[in-house]
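Q&A FORM
Asked by: J.P.
Topic: structure of SP-RING-type domain-containing protein

PROVIDED:
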Amino acid sequence: MAGGPDGKRRTPVKAERRHSSSEEDDSSDEEDQRSRPRPRTIEEWKIVIEEEVQRTVPEALQQVVANARNQRHDLLRFALEGVTAARNLAPLAKVYSSELLDDLKQLTKDYVRTQGHIGHFDAKLSELHEELQAGRVPSSFDHLLKVDWYPADDDILNKHEYVKLFDAVAGIEREEDEDEDVMVQESNSLRNMSCPITQMIMQDPVKNPECGHTYSKVGIESHLKHKQSCPVAGCRKRVQNLEPDVDMEVLIANRSRTISAPTAAGATAVDSDSEEEHIVE
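REPLIED BY: S.T.
REPLY: Here is the structure written out as tokens.
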């Protein structure tokens, strides 16, 4: 072993260690590359996106349907209140202005058309809701909620319950069989306003979309503590997804106002809405 200029021995530097470190780095890089996930192809990304859409879109659309139904409730309430206001003004209009009476009757028909349009729209919403519940997303949304306008034929409108009731309040003569129809409809309406559970006039009426039956909120809540089936005799549907029954709500409110109005003198009184419902647990 050669010595240095100072006569001391020098230890040779080994190059193997540097070379070994380089090999270890290369090996580590190869392992990292093997452990990294393979980048997805465009086709794979398309599948992932499609699955995510199928998972999230039905839920988002159900929320849209729920919001649309809430708006439908508000629109229907306004239409029914408009019909009631026109009917309440009919006796006064008959005394002071036949022209105003005609306008009020025409307004009632317009409200009937509006209610019919809302009904068609609600049917479309129900169809869409059922599709989404089954996990089926429509392939196209064009004209999905497009509805046909309610028939404008006067012969059809004149046979509607609201127009018949308007004529009855205004004292407009109709055919005898039509007058009898009005009485039958009023009787049926009174009977239908009774909760099938409490057997009293409903308070906070709610409807079961599964079968279309309506119950008093306090009554159905008590019933659901024991059974999940519809309490109406012969109905086997389950009670779920209850929603406010705007039609019944307005009908009961109208009846309450009619009973308290002077024009209702002599009419048969039924149990008042303000009476507390009694439930047997």
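FOLLOW-UP: The beta strands are 205-207, 214-216, 243-244.
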